[in-house]
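User: Predict the complex.
Assistant: Input components as received:
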Amino acid sequence: MSKAESENNVEIGLTVKKSQNLSEWYQQVILKSKMADYSPVGGCMIFLPWSFSIWERIREWLDARLRRLGHENAYFPLFIPESLLKRESEHFAGFTPEVAWVQAEGDASEERLAIRPTSETIMYHMYSKWIRSYRDLPLLLNQWNNVVRWEFKSTRLFLRTREFLWQEGHTAHASKEEADTEVRTILGIYQELARDLLALPSLAGLKSEGEKFAGALYTTTFEMLMPDGRALQAGTSHGLGQNFAKAFDIQYLTKEQRKEYVWQTSWGISTRLIGALVMVHGDDRGLVLPPAVAPIQIIIVPIYYSPERSKEVNEYSLKVLQKLNKSFRIKIDDREDKTPGWKYNEWELKGVPLRLEVGPRDIEKQQVIFVRRDTNDKKEKQAVAFQDIEERAESVLGDIQSKLLKKAEDFLKAETRGASSYEEFRRIIEQNAGFVVCSWCGEVECEREISSDTGATVRLIPFEDSAPTAETCFHCNRRATKLAYFARSY
Amino acid sequence: MSKAESENNVEIGLTVKKSQNLSEWYQQVILKSKMADYSPVGGCMIFLPWSFSIWERIREWLDARLRRLGHENAYFPLFIPESLLKRESEHFAGFTPEVAWVQAEGDASEERLAIRPTSETIMYHMYSKWIRSYRDLPLLLNQWNNVVRWEFKSTRLFLRTREFLWQEGHTAHASKEEADTEVRTILGIYQELARDLLALPSLAGLKSEGEKFAGALYTTTFEMLMPDGRALQAGTSHGLGQNFAKAFDIQYLTKEQRKEYVWQTSWGISTRLIGALVMVHGDDRGLVLPPAVAPIQIIIVPIYYSPERSKEVNEYSLKVLQKLNKSFRIKIDDREDKTPGWKYNEWELKGVPLRLEVGPRDIEKQQVIFVRRDTNDKKEKQAVAFQDIEERAESVLGDIQSKLLKKAEDFLKAETRGASSYEEFRRIIEQNAGFVVCSWCGEVECEREISSDTGATVRLIPFEDSAPTAETCFHCNRRATKLAYFARSY
């Protein structure tokens, strides 16, 4: 390796280990893999193709699932008049501090316009015009858009930015039962998306009263665990009850000609999922992308040895590509100004799941060298006969996908602990050791005390098996009413 | 038809003919077909699924074409600091009056933030950081997003709204030739999209100096003709030269280690195309959607006659559906509270290209009745044997697609006229009669005079055969230098 080249490697490589400084590692891996960059506006970010194409795959997967259940995509305006945002008082109180307001040049209208932090109010204003009869129900709309929440907490690429991309589904139903089913169906789909596409396991449950969505009857959530033991709220699905229906007067005529308020739900996942993907799977060499969402699943690196042999190596590489490009997202890195070693480092940094090395010796043996991204041993290389590469690529990529999930599941399981006393609880939390499951009273005040003392909040109350295992609350000694999963969180 | 039902029909049907009042017809057809609705914020609109899914099809088609040419999708922030927007002075002067500015609640930063009216400035600020060497070129990024231009002209659904959806491509190249090729390649793809997907013919050419994009070296455009003889700018592709490269200092190192400015292009199409689709193809009964973009291509309407036969009719309808739903977007309208006649009217209003009627007699004859949306005669019905329906649906839909295009092409051709004197020109323009082709001097001042006198502007200067046919300008008698297509426009 030449001097210039080793400098190049330093420039693109990570200068910090994941285990040493997760936060610095996280930022470096995102910037250096060219997933994203900072915007000149503080707290905003640029989604480069390497992350945006992951978002497109998430969208495609979810759209197909939602469509099958009868949901349709629409687009509602960015601007919400202040009077609409105020209509549901809890909702307004919850969002106001983070709202960015617009003044149009030379505009005479008196009312300020909010840039949507979420679209309940503008959508439900329309729902009250559109919904007349039971025949108009259920109304199942979804939109993919950008929202703005002017965060004053410190921001972090993907995980907390002032503008982010998400989808927000908003449904209206004739009965509470139907709405409740929708809330849980969607949450299940979200968990499936995370698990099957992103190889990210999660825990699902109810939010506590203190943590539920502003204006909701109840909030369900799915939560992930990051390597530093902090939880990440990966997405939420809200039962809105009739709160917004009453504030926006969304009534329908039943078959029996009675007027009733609709039952509503809203739910969303965001580009934050990409942040979780980076944190959970990445390692000291960079990103590790699950094959199901990797923009490039297989990278072919030709090894020329000598200029004389480069033509035949390129031809063989092309043969390999052609055998695989119907089934896989695959590319040849035939840049002539970079050495194979440089390329290995770059594609490892970018997290491509499988590398194929192709040199003159491999042509002679009619084989291809397979190198997996997910194993820690850089030298674990396997020679695969040319006629077997398609089948082997399929099985290796499948194996990477399931091993990434398995590893994350094991971590989640290992880092979920019970605590029977507040002391034990506090010791675990202070070691940044994941979820702590406790028998809890369910009181807002109790949660507030725990939170201000330890930084941990109730992440979820499980849907099933939520009966407390002790009689009294681990913290306040009131009667315990449920199990709760506590953690510090992003 | 019962009284209630005929009232229902009045409610959903159009109350004005397209030829009587195009503007009122246009608004009614969009609102009543449930393509869109007005937002409570003036000049903003809601894209309902019936139009949004057309936008999704446009996106899918264009993304596939752009990807094949090496373009990648990204996402840049909504907010642009005022100092960046000002960097290229012509650009800033062109957009300032329409910019909406943001003030974040409690934010201490002094600089105002613009909501993007277009993203040149924020993107090129980043390009100057990312582009270092010839190896980084060409840089081919595209994004699909929302932009805001605070129009003070009267707005119109899809055609002119304060927020709209579009894609904006932004490329950087090593040479002017390569950039010029990109500009024209994209314009060609846009015309192909309009023609093949939307059945909309267009004319392409250069914009005059007075009409080019603020900050561009030159602008190319494709223009359509609406039924009232007004032109519609359907999309543009700009050669930016090195104007922005110099303002934003985007330089690269050539192979020979020289520093040079890049050559840039930008280009976009918007949801305005959906407005053109409505205007050009619609008729007095409502929308007429080209099969290639229709959300539903075929609607099956079961005709029950009597409750006893409804089961067998539903079964037969399902058999028809199952034979067709692998190849077509198809649906059965089995609502029990609507008559067939009511359903016919509604699906005609919504522009579904092909209706299949299925009744007890058709079961006996093992046939299906085909009714095309694009013919004016409501009674033109064809009986098709069950075993032939797939093949026939294919050919009928293909025929509808090409006939819609043909009709629009004929109109465009018929409404494009030459004029050799200013009097003749003015007479044609005042009759709202489409494009007028004249030998023109090319002077900004001359165009301004014509525009303030007649409301017509230069829509385009053809790429080929653009030599003037007369020696002097039809208006100012200066030397004619080119042919120009004039029209009043949206």
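The domain at 416-487 of chain A is CATH 3.30.110.30 (Translation Initiation Factor IF3).
Let me know if you want any component modeled separately.
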